[in-house]
Amino acid sequence: MSVFGRAACLLNRHEPDRRRVNWDGWHYVGQCRGCGIAIEREALKLWRRQKPQDNRPSENEAG
Ligand SMILES: [Zn+2]
Fold first, then answer.
1. What residue spans define the domains of the chain?
2. Ligand 1 centroid to 3 CA: how many Å?
3. How many Å from the N-terminal Cα to the C-terminal Cα in the chain?
């Protein structure tokens, strides 16, 4: 964990734990090394917080 990593997390730019990266059939998914949340790869070297996989609204989801 680094200061830079944590700052990136605040900007929704996460870094995966490469040992835990998986292909879910649509995205690469993993867990952030900095903050530990579930993340998905949006583009090369660009990992975002993972979105819900179904289309239902998730208003009950607290951060
Ligand atoms: Zn993070």
1. 3-49
2. 11
3. 21
Where do the DSSP E strands lie in the chain?
Answer: 22-23, 28-31, 38-43, 46-49
Which parts of the chain have pLDDT scores under 70? 1-5, 53-63
Pairwise CA distance, residues 51 & 3, whole Å: 25
User: What residues have a C-beta under 5 A from ligand 1, the ion?
Assistant: 9, 14, 32, 34-35
6 CA to centre of ligand 1 in angstroms: 7
The whole model's pTM is what?
A: 0.71
Give the per-residue pLDDT at 61.
60
Phi-psi region of 23 (alpha: psi -120 to 50; beta: other; left: phi over 0): beta
- Distance from the CA of 10 to the center of ligand 1, in angstroms? 7
